[in-house]
């Protein structure tokens, strides 16, 4: 009954149970954080806007991203994955989401930032519907925890419009 | 060591009745593990509710050996979600993030493009020859939960099968020699 193996087994089981419980509590504690992130995006300049040889419209622009995401960090946060996506509707597609830029924020100190960048990924349509198209720019964030449940949310900024002509 | 002597003694003293009880209890352990796995499959709606991260393509978010919990709901797929997908002609499922979504107006079908956070380019090179987009049926689930390091157990066991056999042998011996 009280052999070495029995005791080792009991100790291991107990240690693993406590560890699992602590991971669960750490993940649940994220629910008590009520973040108030803020962000603003401005489109500064359309660098170029063309119809590609395959018939798809492609555009490149420079934008200004200002954000304060510090309140998203808790003690269970490993990092923040953020990205800006353009979202629009076309006659063919009810929803197009195109990721334009992303970044990883490793710590709270870096979560208040200002960037001026051109789109990192190609903004290409499926087809040729982008001239004069209205679109949203959405800042998404994905909170990646040290352990437990992953959280995601976004801020939508609407009212952007692409140029009427290719350039 | 008296412990080993005891073990040998208890192996010798096995009777048929005891043997049967132990076979039954071992069967119970195996079947309950199977029940839990299948129940998880039903609850999460994914054919593999838990996956182990095998590559570093999502670092620093997910490292090799971390475990992801999957969920497959009817919800539409959106950018930013981390999905697990199977590409035709590839055995091992891939865990990457969705960066582009095009959803059809009439049929509701989706075209999805993915990318690993740590990779320079998107995943078109990983897809089948000439494939530009993933469709819904390629996607096995989306990651909802995360547990670090635990997956190392399975990685070690698949890469060093000896350890697996030693472990199974030791556990089997423990079951046989346990007195109640």
Automatic annotation (TrEMBL), chain A:
Signal peptide positions (record): 1-26
Key word Protein transport present: no
Name of protein: Signal peptidase complex subunit 3
One Pfam match: SPC22
Functional summary from the UniProt entry: Essential component of the signal peptidase complex (SPC) which catalyzes the cleavage of N-terminal signal sequences from nascent proteins as they are translocated into the lumen of the endoplasmic reticulum. Essential for the SPC catalytic activity, possibly by stabilizing and positioning the active center of the complex close to the lumenal surface.
Subcellular location: Endoplasmic reticulum membrane
Keyword field contains DNA damage: no
Organism, as annotated: Salix dunnii
Bilayer disposition of the protein: Single-pass type II membrane protein
Gene Ontology terms describing biological process: protein targeting to ER; signal peptide processing
GO cellular component: signal peptidase complex
UniProt family annotation: Belongs to the SPCS3 family.
Keyword vocabulary terms for this entry: Endoplasmic reticulum, Membrane, Signal, Signal-anchor, Transmembrane, Transmembrane helix
TrEMBL record, chain B:
Annotated localization: Endoplasmic reticulum membrane
UniProt keyword Lipid metabolism, yes or no: no
EC annotation from Swiss-Prot or TrEMBL: 3.4.21.89
Catalytic activity: Cleavage of hydrophobic, N-terminal signal or leader sequences from secreted and periplasmic proteins
Family annotation (InterPro entries): LexA/Signal_pep-like_sf, Peptidase_S24_S26A/B/C, Peptidase_S26, Peptidase_S26B
Protein origin, superkingdom: Eukaryota
Residues in the signal sequence: none
Identification of the protein by name: Signal peptidase complex catalytic subunit SEC11
Main location, first listed in the record: endoplasmic reticulum
Biological processes, Gene Ontology terms: signal peptide processing
Organism this protein belongs to: Salix dunnii
Keywords: Hydrolase, Membrane, Protease, Signal-anchor, Transmembrane, Transmembrane helix
Transmembrane intervals: 20-40, 139-156, 162-178
UniProt cross-references to Pfam families, sorted A to Z: Peptidase_S24
A cellular-component GO term for this protein: signal peptidase complex
Residue ranges of domain Peptidase S24/S26A/S26B/S26C in the record: 36-114
Presence of keyword Transmembrane: yes
Main function: Catalytic component of the signal peptidase complex (SPC) which catalyzes the cleavage of N-terminal signal sequences from nascent proteins as they are translocated into the lumen of the endoplasmic reticulum. Specifically cleaves N-terminal signal peptides that contain a hydrophobic alpha-helix (h-region) shorter than 18-20 amino acids.
EC class name: hydrolase
GO molecular function: serine-type endopeptidase activity; signal peptidase activity
SUPFAM superfamilies linked: LexA/Signal peptidase
Family from the record: Belongs to the peptidase S26B family.
Membrane-related topology note: Single-pass type II membrane protein
């Amino acid at each position: 009954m009280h052999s070495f193996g029995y005791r080792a087994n009991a100790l291991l089981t107990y240690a693993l149970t406590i560890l699992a419980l602590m991971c669960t509590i750490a993940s649940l504690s994220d629910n008590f954080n009520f973040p108030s992130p803020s962000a603003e995006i401005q489109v500064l300049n359309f660098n170029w806007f063309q119809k590609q040889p395959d018939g798809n419209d492609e555009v490149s622009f420079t934008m200004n991203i200002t954000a304060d995401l510090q309140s998203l960090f808790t003690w269970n946060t490993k990092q923040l994955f953020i990205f800006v996506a353009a979202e629009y509707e076309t006659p063919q597609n009810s929803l197009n989401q195109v990721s334009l830029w992303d970044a990883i924020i490793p710590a709270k100190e870096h979560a208040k930032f200002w960037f001026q960048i051109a789109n990192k990924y190609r903004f290409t349509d499926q087809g040729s519907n982008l001239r004069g198209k209205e679109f949203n720019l959405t800042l998404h964030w994905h909170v990646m925890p040290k352990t437990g449940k992953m959280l995601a949310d976004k801020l939508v900024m609407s009212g952007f419009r692409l140029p009427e002509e290719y350039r | 060591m008296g412990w080993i002597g005891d073990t040998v003694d208890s192996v010798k003293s096995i009777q048929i009745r005891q043997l049967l009880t132990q076979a039954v209890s071992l069967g119970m352990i195996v079947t309950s593990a199977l029940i839990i796995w299948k129940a998880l499959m039903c609850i999460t709606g994914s054919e593999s509710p838990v996956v182990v991260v095998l590559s570093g393509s999502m670092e620093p978010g997910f490292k090799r050996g971390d475990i992801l919990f999957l969920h497959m709901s009817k919800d539409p797929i959106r950018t930013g979600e981390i999905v697990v997908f199977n590409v035709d002609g590839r055995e091992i499922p891939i865990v990457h993030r969705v960066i582009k979504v095009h959803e059809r107006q009439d049929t509701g079908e989706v075209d999805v493009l993915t990318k690993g956070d740590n990779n320079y380019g998107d995943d078109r090179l990983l897809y089948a020859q000439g494939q530009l987009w993933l469709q819904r049926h390629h996607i096995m689930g989306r990651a909802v939960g995360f547990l670090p390091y635990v997956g190392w157990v399975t990685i070690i066991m698949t890469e060093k099968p000896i350890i697996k056999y030693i472990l199974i042998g030791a556990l089997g011996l423990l079951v046989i020699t346990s007195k109640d």
